Fold this sequence. Notes:
A: Aspartate Aminotransferase, domain 1; seven-stranded mixed sheet; 36% helix; C: alpha/beta; Aspartate Aminotransferase, domain 2; 17 strands; globular
Amino acid sequence: MTGDASRRAPGGRAASAPLMGKATEPTIFEYSAPGRRAWSLRTTGLPEWSAEELVPAAHLRAEPLALPEVAERDLVGHFTRLSHRQYSVDLGAYPLGSCTMKYNPKVCDEAASLAAFRDVHPATPPVGAQGWLQVLVELEEALCEITGMAAATLQPAAGAAGELTGLLLMRAWHELAGERRTRVVVPESAHGTNPASVTLGGYTPVTVGTDARGLVDRAALAAVLGPDVAGIVLTNPNTLGLFEEEILEIAQMVHDVGGLLYYDGANLNPILGVVRPGDMGFDIVHLNLHKTFATPHGGGGPGAGPVAVSQRLVDLLPGPRPVRVGDGYGFATPPRSIGRIHSFHGNALVLLRAWCYIKLNGGEGLRRVAQVSVLNANWLHEKLRGAYDFPFDRPVMHECVVSAASLKRETGVRALDVAKRLLEEGFHAPTVYFPLVVEESLMIEPTETESPETVAALAEALVSIAAEARAHAAAGEHQPAHDAPRTTPVGRLDETRAARKLVATFDARERPAD
Amino acid sequence: MTGDASRRAPGGRAASAPLMGKATEPTIFEYSAPGRRAWSLRTTGLPEWSAEELVPAAHLRAEPLALPEVAERDLVGHFTRLSHRQYSVDLGAYPLGSCTMKYNPKVCDEAASLAAFRDVHPATPPVGAQGWLQVLVELEEALCEITGMAAATLQPAAGAAGELTGLLLMRAWHELAGERRTRVVVPESAHGTNPASVTLGGYTPVTVGTDARGLVDRAALAAVLGPDVAGIVLTNPNTLGLFEEEILEIAQMVHDVGGLLYYDGANLNPILGVVRPGDMGFDIVHLNLHKTFATPHGGGGPGAGPVAVSQRLVDLLPGPRPVRVGDGYGFATPPRSIGRIHSFHGNALVLLRAWCYIKLNGGEGLRRVAQVSVLNANWLHEKLRGAYDFPFDRPVMHECVVSAASLKRETGVRALDVAKRLLEEGFHAPTVYFPLVVEESLMIEPTETESPETVAALAEALVSIAAEARAHAAAGEHQPAHDAPRTTPVGRLDETRAARKLVATFDARERPAD
Amino acid sequence: MGNFVPHTDADIAAMLEFLGLASLDELYAVVPAAIRLAGLDLPGEIAEADLVAELDAIGAGNRVGSRALCFAGGGAYDHEVPAVVRALAGRSEFVTAYTPYQPEVAQGVLQALFEYQTMVARLSGLPIANASLYDGSAALVEATNLAVATTGSPLIWCSQGVNPRWVEVLRTFARGSGHAIATIGLAGGVTSFDQVPAGRAGAVVVAYPNYLGALEDLAAARAAADRLGAHLIVCQDPIAAGILHSPGQFGTDVVCGEGQALGNPLGFGGPYLGLFSCRAEHVRRLPGRLVGETVDVAGRRAYVTTLRAREQDIRREKASSNVCTNQTLIAVTAAIQLGWLGTEGLRQVALRCARGTRYCRAALLSIPGVEPVSEAPVVREFAVRAPLAPELIVERLLEKGFLAGIPLREGFEGTDVEGGLLVAVTERRTAAEIDGFAAAFAEVIR
Amino acid sequence: MGNFVPHTDADIAAMLEFLGLASLDELYAVVPAAIRLAGLDLPGEIAEADLVAELDAIGAGNRVGSRALCFAGGGAYDHEVPAVVRALAGRSEFVTAYTPYQPEVAQGVLQALFEYQTMVARLSGLPIANASLYDGSAALVEATNLAVATTGSPLIWCSQGVNPRWVEVLRTFARGSGHAIATIGLAGGVTSFDQVPAGRAGAVVVAYPNYLGALEDLAAARAAADRLGAHLIVCQDPIAAGILHSPGQFGTDVVCGEGQALGNPLGFGGPYLGLFSCRAEHVRRLPGRLVGETVDVAGRRAYVTTLRAREQDIRREKASSNVCTNQTLIAVTAAIQLGWLGTEGLRQVALRCARGTRYCRAALLSIPGVEPVSEAPVVREFAVRAPLAPELIVERLLEKGFLAGIPLREGFEGTDVEGGLLVAVTERRTAAEIDGFAAAFAEVIR
Ligand SMILES: Cc1ncc(COP(=O)(O)O)c(C=O)c1O
Ligand SMILES: Cc1ncc(COP(=O)(O)O)c(C=O)c1O
């Protein structure tokens, strides 16, 4: 073998796949051998001009660009083994609060792989893309019906992009009225993207607190509202999983000062077909199709974050927008559009999946989705009584937030330990330490696609972890949860080292000891 | 939850996926809950006649046919977790001698999923299946070029089916000549399908031994040959991985008594483009496309076992055969055809994959495949010197057979223990205890798709296992290999119990204790 | 060259050096020079993209979908296969595994096969099912081998209602086994068991429903088999099983069948799936693999291929069958599909096929000149006769975008079935499609 | 109903009973009655098979493949994606995972992202790359945010050679950030950096190659940025990178780009992939996720998202960006595609694009009336002008089965580029296809 072959990794060893042991998986760079290849390219019959003939010398790369050189077999081995080191919805429940990790129907994957949709260039003129435009228009219409809004842009690529789009719409609306408002109200329990988007929208976020019920503190809200307030960013149910019952009053208060209401759609799942943001008084809504509408999350995207607005904001929407034109479809840019927010039309293949999901469920099915997501969450919540603290002991929507504060006090086992211990039980962990307003929070969202048996097993696992911690504390024994997880490909990580001695590329690594 | 729900398995628990621990995976029946469903069917607009209206009462099933009732989500969870309990080529090397478990190019999977091929009914008349017929005819022609034969049938669904087809051709050939021969010669090292097929072909198998070189014992062969011998079934290289260098002499001997030579193509890989069965004197050849031509093995099929024959046997081939007709393609049944051996045209989608593989490699590529498979095997073989016994110390072809006889004598670690210990090292085990003629045999076939690094790591693992056994024996310590495998989803199984207390269906199970 | 061979020239040189060889050719020193090739007369390698382009071009020569709306059956049916089945059965761990020789790392395939065996046993109503055979015809051959080995009689009485291509396969293999295949004719579309003369036989074979879609009298079949001291072998359609009795109820010895309809595409005829179940007493003669449940050293539930002593790799020439590689992935697919369907889904498919069959039969019979081949009740497919040769009907309807069915010729020579057309309607055919088919049918025979 | 909700009515009743509720509606007692809905005005559920039929029907309204042979680019290219990339990126563990919040069970995604970051860093020639952004335009917006935050100047000088749609996105987001976007015009197809007046600025933005396919002078760009005390931001095409210099060589601060070409389909514009790399000194202002290597308790090499303090979930309103969900799966796909290509494969793709570009450009320019928009050397795409509006050329050529390119309008108003047609040729276009295109082009403008 050539060169430093003895240092190279064997592409055909499965040791790193959990099925076969616990060895680490080398990086693809460690499999690379000069001259190996997987690629092949079409025979074109073109003249074989050299790079020197085609590219002025001043621009021609001197050194070849170093990429891993592997055979197809080793490429497959490597990424297949990596996949065996990755939890996923298809392997088990993913009760991450605020994330709505439901099952993603397989037919939607096939839809997105149909050549008739997959292979369309985004600059195809409408006459050649009628199918796509129909899907996008129909999706927009369905989302408007679901949210109670008048029109929507499908361009935002995720929730945060939707938020920023919404805030720019808010800004444009006020500017059209000749106003320069400077502040936007955000509840303290809000997701981090909310204040960040507010800032990027050119506003100063103002925080309002949570009252004893876990809802927006109306008195505090009244105190901050004023003519410089452009609007409020809310999600309902809020990030504590609780429905803001006074939403109509809140809307009134905000509208009274000339502000707009923005709805963070991350929590739309439990109210599908039950109550609509538009009917609650919201003016702008984003949706996370990768949460509510089952487009798979991809390990962190791609998502899609369409933004729907009430009638008075329609003219401001980003463009070009897919629209009906006679019997067919075309594009139109709203007269006072804030402009594009995506290179083309948004994450189209994700949008197609959501269109499929809505079709598959229909209106009634979506309502059932919502109801059962709430049923699962309440059932689970009730099962945790006694084992964990209930910071706000009231019925929840699609997720529940409990606290491990007492548990920690009594046993030293923290929310994080509970999460890691749960991994050993065969479940993904819930969201921990968010929302920030609850100490040692565990935010659990089973979603409607988990069966009653799964929710029961999850509840049982959570209860038994608390019981185990208390039993070990009573016996003065070492807490197994502190060592968890012990059955996963790797154990707890040294996160401090990752940040202190940043190694963000293979090239930044020192030669490994192993 | 309904009924005996407490006994039901939670569909969303990943505990059984090795990533998440080592729990067993319940059967799909244990996930079943009355009324759950995953199915949906097309809206047809047909009258909704009831079963009673459609089926005479005497035929109508009284009790519903009990199948598992699960949601799509739980179906996916279950089979995805099962897949995480399964070794495969895509996870790592599979050096099973005699099985040629090479990497299966992904493009061939896509080819087999093209609607234009996948959705064709086998009774489509030729005018509507020209594409398929072209592929089948071209594949037949390529296989004939590769084997040095005149024509082939693509109907046999696997190697054993090909063998039996070949033996029926042998029988038909002799019968046409008015002869009723009764015996067929099979080497003692032959694969079990060979004697079994000989019997099903209506012949009595006669065994010939192996000489000191590991080759057919020519004296023994001469002794059994006679006018009642219909032919001989050989594979070359033989199942010891050795090339029968006297094949021309053997062919002469068999032909001299009027017998035919049958070539078991399981070992064709190392001679692709280097030497052809037809040129060695064989009359009938089967090929295992699921070995040599990289069609994936599917955990035990589907395969494809085409049978190619020399000119004098062409008229006997099974029919209907895809043939060229003018500029196009049609079917023809040979005039003295032995008849169909498959419901339709064989495992067509497997055949399509093999056609792709041949195209992708081309003639030169196939030769390279052969050469490198032999190179890998010889290199590996040489690396094992000293650690294992070499029953026949000579250059091998695509696989090598070594023996753990000395190891067992010295340490108590048997071939089986070595195999199980190798699983812990991240490799699939080689074939053990076959061929039967070698005591404690390990039959190792790396194939050409494993890189030098992989072959080196495999060799190292095998050597270190032997070294470990000897070290532990020297120290009088318990042998770890006897406990292996310890890092796999389950440990060694109680195979006796499986046979004694047969539980071949879920319904035959006693209620589980767990 | 050689994207599927990782070795670079440098790798090869280094490995050869280690072996003390100067060239790859030297690896073949043992091969007689006289027959060593310089190379193959085959075209050179092509790029993946070129292959795909070629497949597209060649594939255009096949008519599928709306270019050949499927009304053909005869053992291969156009049933719904959902995306989830393709996704799961396509997982590479299942696709690229070998036969489970090392059960510790093959629990995935083994357990899936155990589940498959359970489902097939439930379909048939018999307690034991194997882990698959090649296709329906192979299952029938194996069933008759088992029957002959058990009863000692090599005579097989086979209903003319059994798939004629399967019977031809039976005859082909009988050349080796020496079995005799005798035919029991049909009357009014169903088997006339009283035709069978007295004597001894190894098996009586009947299909349920039969090749013409009609429902046979399995009690009568059992009685005929009993008179002959023979096994009863039933070729069962696994879809119609959703609404019909299980053959196991009638004392059937072996149930065999074609499992393509359970989640597999038409695929121009393969890979398909031989279904095979039998009575418990026959288990030691069962062909093919059998998976059993057991425990591992730690007492964990686990699966393994069992009763291996039946198989060719151990029993060699005395094995009950020569089958080695079978159709595992197709069996796993069938298990997934049956899991997707569940009790009610399978019933619905069966019911909807029966509805479409009735509707389509009525539509065709309402065309002047079209006549039924028999009046026997049908649930799966049906045969009609028209004043035009069935081959011509098929050819002309293909031009109109319909695959009309299968001409009834081989196996029915000289009977009143010959010259009929066998038409199948699955749950995928809509009323509109059937109406269009009937209208086109009327046109082409006009 | 509800194949994606496992619960049967009995399940629901039992769960409600446990909660002491009489109906599902009672779960919503807290929702004001006035706004509670009876249901949605949407059609009922449909079966998977009906959905597939509908998709086929609707999809027929899109022109793909030979109905619209692709000569369009502008940030979205028709490159080869092999089956192996689809197979691996389609593995459900990658597809159905969440953002890796629990690294112990997310090593698959984390390591793949680490490998992706390495490859992107190598493409750009800069040491740090993030784990993806939404698309090229989003990457550009983030790059300018970083530049403004670092330099303190909100003025962005943006070459007119930058993708005009990206510049529009930049302008949209500038409504919130208050940044000022100024344009540096083109001369002879490339940016005239000497146009830029003296003063201070946050960033100079240039594309390499630019939107018209031409090669910009990055040294001149760096010099211009230096004069302004500004960052240099280069929008890099990752394919052309296979033969061109890396922008990192020229002291570029941030390299951003569109990664669609790395293994992703055209997909009507998304999901695409924002590539983002920067100098080490900017790492604490890096937008999006960053994966770093570390060890676990047992000292095993492992990966985790790191420097999280930059991110919105921790820094909230002070975060360097609001990005949360990004394009992980597309990044993983790009890593697999780059692994498939390797050093030589990427070079070959770049080279073949350049060959096709030269060949096609020459073919079009040989048509009477067709003129180049500039003579600057191009490697990726090129612009021509013909005596017919580009919109009409595109429309008429679509009827002949070609997607001819992108009309040059927005962003070029009033320049000599306006009214041109931007044509892209990838390695997938054959000489025969290009010849056919040129012939059809000649016809439609005649
Ligand atoms: C409440 C809430 N808001 C906003 C977001 C941001 O959405 P995205 O990640 O799609 O940008 C999330 C996602 O985690 C969320 O949970
Ligand atoms: C030498 C040999 N012959 C024949 C066979 C039988 O082939 P198949 O399993 O395809 O029936 C095999 C397969 O294992 C084999 O190795």
